[in-house]
């Protein structure tokens, strides 16, 4: 099994676990990002309060709306990203060693090369998996709307519950969303928001650049202190992943909001604020009608969710890679012993 495949599978596994742990936070954050006209009382609600509101009015299952396609998307995204990242990284390392032989550089991959490797991997990932995230965003932002009794009518609790139950819309499932997106814009509708998403590859690029730099520095310090350079603990990986993601999220969050707005269902009303024709139109309308504050809706929630998810992902991924390499090495040793002399 190639090292690229090991990293790809480990990345997919780590991504799934991180997604399961942080998904309710992600759902609330996506709603915050796509809210055009947040009410004053909603602005004052904290993340946990908003989660409780969703459970109270729509049921706890809405916190996990779109979970299945999201898990598929996470596995695909992390698998594709880590697979191509390892391939491009190996090529960059080979190029660096080649340069060292002719007297240029020290043979290590520089910060710029690391950034380029992460960016290329991110672009491949975005182009292949964007349709999945369009579906996930639609399902996360879908709200269960029930018809209320007409004001002034005195209905019993039982009668009101009957009306609410009868007014419930059909399940908003994956097939429904796919048909909806295709009906609105055809095949290209599944690539809504792809432009800001491609620009957003700077997020994992910055994240991995910071992560690799901090990890390399930590290993060098361990080597200088006569400790094993591979003796980085799971907790240290967790913290490095969290710090790297924090830095990347603060820089690129406005792009994430624009992407979510474009991928969410467009509300077709006379109010032009609720409909975006494209990336530039979304940016202009957000600045005009919401100010720069609109680009940072739900940022605190996103920082908690993304930092926690990234930290878990890095920790689990590194442990899975170590375990896979250990098992492969053990298997190779057993095979060598079993061969006749």
UniProtKB/TrEMBL annotation:
Segments forming a coiled coil: none
An individual GO BP term: nucleotide transport
Signal peptide stretch: none
GO cellular component: membrane
Subcellular localization(s) per the UniProt record: Membrane
Ranges for the Solcar repeats: 2-91, 109-217, 232-323
Membrane topology of the entry: Multi-pass membrane protein
Domain of life: Eukaryota
Transmembrane segments: 63-84, 104-128, 190-211, 232-256, 295-316
Keyword Isomerase recorded: no
Family matches, as InterPro entries: MCP_dom_sf (IPR023395), MCP_transmembrane (IPR018108), SLC25A32-like (IPR044712)
Keywords: Membrane, Repeat, Transmembrane, Transmembrane helix, Transport
PANTHER family hit by this protein: MITOCHONDRIAL NICOTINAMIDE ADENINE DINUCLEOTIDE TRANSPORTER 1-RELATED-RELATED
Protein family per UniProt: Belongs to the mitochondrial carrier (TC 2.A.29) family.
Name by which UniProt lists this protein: Peroxisomal nicotinamide adenine dinucleotide carrier
